[in-house]
Specification:
Two copies of one chain form a homodimer. In chain A, strand 4 and strand 5 form a beta hairpin. Chain A has a domain of 107 residues: Jelly Rolls. Chain A is an alpha+beta fold and 188 residues long. The model of chain A has no long low-confidence stretch (mean pLDDT 93). A four-stranded antiparallel β-sheet of chain A has the order 1-8-3-6. In chain A, strands 2-7-4-5 form a four-stranded antiparallel β-sheet, with helices on one face. The first copy, chain A, is built from nine helices and eight strands. Helices cover 48% and strands 23% of the residues of chain A. Chains A and B meet through helix 3 and helix 5 of A and helix 3 and helix 5 of B. Chains A, B: This is Crp/Fnr family transcriptional regulator. Chains A, B: InterPro entries: cNMP-bd_dom, cNMP-bd_dom_sf, RmlC-like_jellyroll. Chains A, B: It holds the Pfam family cNMP_binding.
Chain lengths: 188, 188
């Protein structure tokens, strides 16, 4: 299963067996059941997570009305955590919980900085990943600014048809920022 | 003026004089007048820009109705470009133009990758900057999902009181996603 991490890193930089074993030794494997939390709002954030299998959502709950907003989904081959809390070592403002049974490899900030300092190629890998993440978020902002919820639903369906099957409709509605009833009008 | 770049990098990693001169030799200085474009929608994106002085906006124009959406502002000590186009060497979907007379240091992707490969500490610097950028965008998404335009105006005023003075009201309105008339109701 951890071979998935190797394949993922090797899309950016080649590794020897020894290098990969060394990198892997800095991760902690975790298995989670459906509905279990990896990050809980208000709690410290110890790890960044590389998803081996399963599906998670990162969400924010408005303390005033208890309404949940989905920031993003993460599944196989994605990294996810509350990055603001992780990098600043502050408490989470997001929650991260499992929509399906999930297996992850968890990397603490100390270990991330350690392997980045020790191995230039890993620093390079994480820089490239961070650049891609930045571009993805910029696209999401543009989409929030310029498209309707129905257009966003159609984009999601076109880009990630599997996701629509795997995620309950109430959660898709919350990602799009509409009610469950409004979503049902898009999916006739 | 280029000392500003050194101070900016040294917030993350110390540099010798020789290292800084070497890094600086990979940048091209540019001076721009008010309303001049650094990045133009549809054109290739050659550079990432470190702002020495002035003020820029990154915007997207909807081809259907010609409406302009402001993605972000950039001023002293910020980096800005159309990152999707820059990293993927594709044509810009954003425009980047000067709200004030602006001086920048421009870094091509080839030179960025060169100094990152040659100097581990520069790769580290850009990884850290990219992480901060990611966090800032995540905050903007949360704000777009969970707050009203009036609340976003008040956040902007609290965080960047100077910006409100420097940017024309029509552009602030476009950043918030409201009409000029709606904005005037927030600013009584």
């Amino acid at each position: 299963m951890s071979e998935k991490l190797r394949q993922h890193i090797e899309k950016i930089t080649p590794l020897t067996d020894i290098e990969f074993e060394y990198i892997l030794s800095h991760f902690v494997p975790k298995k989670l059941k459906k509905h279990q939390f990896l990050v809980q709002e208000g709690a410290p954030v110890q790890y960044d997570y590389f998803v081996l299998s399963g599906l998670l959502k990162a969400s924010y709950t408005n303390p005033e009305d208890g309404k949940e907003y989905i920031l993003q989904f993460a599944w196989e081959d994605w990294w996810t955590t509350d990055y603001q809390a992780y990098f600043n070592q502050s408490n989470a403002i997001l929650s991260l919980d499992c929509i399906e049974e999930t297996e992850v490899l968890a990397l603490s900030l100390t270990n991330r900085e350690k392997i980045c300092a020790e191995m230039h190629k890993i620093e390079h890998f994480f820089r490239r990943k961070s650049n891609s993440g930045y571009i993805a978020l910029q696209r999401r902002i543009l989409s929030l600014l310029t498209t309707s919820a129905q257009e966003r639903y159609e984009q999601l369906l076109a880009c990630y048809p599997d996701l629509i099957q795997r995620v309950p409709k109430t959660i898709i509605a919350s990602y799009l920022g509409v009610s469950r009833e409004t979503l049902s009008r898009f999916t006739y």
